[in-house]
Amino acid sequence: MTLSNLTETHLLITWHNATTLLDDIKKQISDNFTIKRIFCNSWDNKDFLGNLVQFYAHSQKEKSSDDYLKILKNKIAHCGNGKFYVFVIEDHTPHYDYRLTSNGEQIVNTNIFDLKTNLRELTGGGHKIHCSNNIFESNKDLTLIFHKNKDDFYKEHQGNDQNIIKIKQNCLGFNGFNQIEDLFYLLNNTIQYCVLRNFECLPNEYTLEGHGDIDLLVENLNYIVYLTNAKPVFPDKNYRVHYTIKIDKEDIPFDFRYLGDGYYDVNWQNEILNTSIFFNNCIKTPNEINHFYSLLYHAYVQKHTVKEDYKIRLKKIAENASLKYGNDQTENENILHHFMVKQGYEYTIPLDETVHFKKIIEKNYREEPYKLISRNIVRYGKKVYFSEVFRYDERTILKKGSPYIIKNEFEYLSLLKDYKYFPKIYEYSNKNEIHSIKISYIHGEKLIKKIITDSSFWTAKNIQKIHSQILDILSILTLHNIIHRDFTPNNLLIDADFNIYLIDFGWATSSSSDTGENITPNALAQNYRKSINNFNDWYFYSRIAGKLFFRITAFKRVSDFLSKADQKDYLNHSDLQKLYDLNKMQTLQFTLKDYFIITSKRCKLFYNKLIKKLN
């Protein structure tokens, strides 16, 4: 049946606790709309919650699983779990405008929305009446309830009939899907999705023996999980996207990639979804260009090595799409990079920790011939924070990374610019979501490496010198309300003259303000902090002193005193007198035993070097 362009089909549900007013509800509907069909449906009590999970998946997709289930259990208590009535109605004069919904202000069909509002008042308030707000929601609801989209529904139900039709039918896919076509029928009518690759054998081959994981890009992870009753393979690892969906009584593996997960640039992900095309008339796949470049990206950025089967497939796709595929890795990396730059796409770090991404950051800066010194990548919640340190020139370090890390470097090094113990800032800039800072290069080594390998260090004078300097550094941080939070031997550098420098303020924070973002990775100073959330730089030094000089009597006293120090006391002390009393400890009293230990350390290092040289 062909409807006029203006006519819209909508679905209205009267949940069980409102069915006593069914006649009044029916009259209000028929006064303004055409009733096409009325169904009386029922779900078993044990299945009611699971059906609601699927049915409301779209509107509640931002809710966590626990919060979502709590909302739905409250809904059942409010609306009942007995038989309910489904009206399929037509609005011949639809009108769209803004209305305040449970998800904020949205553009809706106001005729239908106002009907729902009036019926909710009639039934005592609350949400005992459900109604689709637009034609997308209407088609989604029809597909879930009746297993038919609007067009297929009208093929079976022509004309108008107000007799109540009794059915007993769960949502499509509630107990799994009879065949894979049923799954894609549901997806095609409910969610933005795209099968990224390896779709050539679908839908004919999808079993575990005939196909590997099916890689889906979807608009929202929770939505696809709630909608399809997908089960996580690794429920204790929330970064994993490996799920199974039951098809023909078999658990078929899927990987769900989703908007904003870093698998691809989010702008590219949107482009892939918005330009998807149908394959075999039932499966949405990327168009030729996005298919080629997303596979090229997958092979050359997300894999350790490019296997031969990828090269064969890429070459074939390129030929069919009149695109270029090169003869070696460097050429193909340049082809990909040219596409990324032209489209304005970033190389992004996936939230899924199992995805290889070693080359991503390198590609971003491939035009920069600087020597990479170190790279740090940290996941915190659903975000990824990264930084890279380059040797820019003889006097300069270039550090690039996430805004949070580089902003901290700039803010705290700016506060410390007048002190000799910290790098100096030369330049700070930001480009999109990648910030950079140029700072002075410290000509030194990590503290722990220097004192272990350099026998000339082991004198009472040098030990006293670095102890004094570290106490100065801690005093300066305290004066400026700075908590470094990563005050470990790796971030203490020592030069040839045994001068100490503190670097890497990317995770620093201020004790004077509780405002702003405060990221605390689990591994931050893990082996030095007093407890899981206790970042006390003075305590950190007690651990360092204890490790480096654990046999020296004087340092047992230092370590013991500092281990009991409360950084908050120092930070809150107005004149910091208590803090400076601690600096009297700079003059260490060494015993004969201490001198013997120092001398033996020096001799041992000299002996080891000699043996190494002789060998």
TrEMBL record:
Record SUPFAM superfamilies: Protein kinase-like (PK-like) (SSF56112)
Keyword terms of this UniProt record: Kinase, Transferase
Superkingdom field: Bacteria
Record Pfam families: Pkinase
PROSITE patterns documented for this protein: PROTEIN_KINASE_DOM, PROTEIN_KINASE_TYR
Keyword Calcium part of the UniProt annotation: no
UniProt key word Phosphoprotein: no
UniProt protein name: Protein kinase
